[in-house]
Amino acid sequence: METLLESDGEEQVRDGEQEEVDNDDRELNETLSNLHVSAPQDLLLKLDKADNLYPESYRVNSPDEIRLLAIGDNHHRQYSHLFPSRKPLLLCPVNECGVKKFVSMTLRPSPTVHPELYTWEGCASFVADFLSLDPLDPPVDLPRYLFLPHLGAEGSESHMYLETRWPGGQKVTHYRKAQLEKFAPYLRPDGLNTRLTTYKDLDSVPLRGSMKKFSPGRSDPDSTSTQRAPEVMRSWGSKLLLTSPVSEEELKGTGGRKVVECFHRNRSKPANEDVAQRVFLLAQRRIELTYHLEDHRFIPSKRSFIKPQESTEKKKGEDFTSDMESSFQVDPSEKPLKTLALNDMLVALMKDEEKVVCQIKESKQEVRDIVACREQEERDVQLEFSPWTTTGAAMARGQRQEMEHLAAEEQRWLQEKEKDILAPFLIRLDNAETLSAEDAKHIHQDCLAEFKQRLAEHANLIQERYEKQTQELQSKQEWYQKNQLNMTKPQEEEYLTYCHEKTLQICVAKKRLSMHKEAAPQKYWTLDQKLRSDPRLAPHLLTF
Description:
There is one protein chain. The chain is of the alpha+beta class. The protein has helices at 2-33, 41-44, 50-53, 56-59, 63-82, 120-130, 156-164, 248-251, 339-379, 390-419, 423-426, 437-483, 489-532, 538-541, and strands spanning 170-174, 178-183, 192-199, 207-214, 224-228, 233-236, 239-243, 258-263, 275-281, 286-291, 302-306, 325-328. The strands form two sheets. It has a seven-stranded antiparallel beta sheet with strand order 6-7-8-9-10-11-12, with helices on one face. The chain has a five-stranded antiparallel beta sheet with strand order 1-2-3-4-5, with no helix packed on it. It is extended.
């Protein structure tokens, strides 16, 4: 009796569940019947052209999509009822064709030919690069419609959009004192991918420097190039030479304005005699010396020279005087140098200045050579396109077809040359188009003589092999006669196998030699007849 009551209870529960399902179905049907689409007027005016512009999935909802829209609409009503103060959810916006589409909140993994999209850094970089910010109007409200990106494209168009990465294939980002330019791979003929330009002030001039990164498809090994305002700097041992920034005019041959030489400390000299920095002010005709710091000193000693004027045709050169030198000694007890010593020091400095000027000229020439080399490289850049890109695949296909065509042409040419037995002899003549009777006779005789020589060489080669194999068999037999009493069973079997193989080789060589001697006269006669019937030789060999 109790069991029967339990069964009646379970049946009542099932009836309640079925009634709830029926109510849900009725509610769903009512929702679908009341489901309306709202789209901007400018979109509705273009719906007549949607059949030609968009696939059917953009214009029509499948039954599953209709059910998703109903579920989303139901969730939206519940959310608005529970949280009336919050912003509405963006679940089912209108697309380009004026059709309501459900916006998924999850991503489905799918394979791609672009390996950079397999990492979160690559995905983040792609999204940041490819998508452009389009502010909402007004910015606090949800959009009335949502267009599908280029990512929704299929086939080769999807690959093309992924390869261009940014709208238009490039993106420019401006910073306070810099400009960052990014280009899609293979977009530029020089393979430039990234160019960072830094500026000295907010007016963006003058240019302080730039750094470029190139795609791996460049033929030259340098994938990164840094360019700055040109300056000459070089070190020799303990000396570092640095000039001020070099202008284009200075690179073309005019002298520099200032040359600075720095030296390490030489412990064998007192600090006030060991030069730390030497400055040649070429335009001012001055030389400034700064010495190393002495122990327990805060400032270094300094000395400055003014070079006397050199003699000219109209004016006598100046003599060095004490007024042309000024100095600052940290140690007041230090005795000043005499005029003669200062003059000798100035003469030595002027000689060093001449050497430095020569070094600067060499450095400038080196810079010019490097710049010219880089300009030549930039003009002759050959990009190697990856076959996994749309452009690379097309180029690879074209190159393969061209190579196949060239290979076929070469093979056909070789076959024609192989058939023409007179080709090697006709090349020796100045004019192979018209043959004289004497030329034809010489070609006929030379061709037969060369063929006869080849037959003899082939016979000699077979004879040498025959004699060599016979000698090897005899040597092996002599070795066996000497060692047969001490040989093991495996050694005897190895010997018998060797003799059998060598005897077979000797027989084959002997047979080949016999067949060659028998066939040689017939081959010689056949070639003679072929030459006499050749249309280029036949008219001249009728009476020969």
